[in-house]
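Please decode residue identities from the backbone states below.
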């Protein structure tokens, strides 16, 4: 997640320590790129699973 992408389309908790987000499959978050993506009928997305570490 060093290179943020927007928008997050959906998210889902898998368990107490894992969740999945679905984001736009874009390399940049520039306004015109996002606008074109939203206007498109063929929006490519990617799913990312994130694990949260325990504080114990």
């Amino acid at each position: 997640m060093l290179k943020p992408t927007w928008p997050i389309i959906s998210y889902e908790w898998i368990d107490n320590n894992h969740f999945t987000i679905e984001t736009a499959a874009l390399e940049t978050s520039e306004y015109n790129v996002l606008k074109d993506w939203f206007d498109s009928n063929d929006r490519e997305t990617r799913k990312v699973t994130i694990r949260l570490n325990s504080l114990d």
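Observation: Strands lie at 8-13, 18-24, 45-51.
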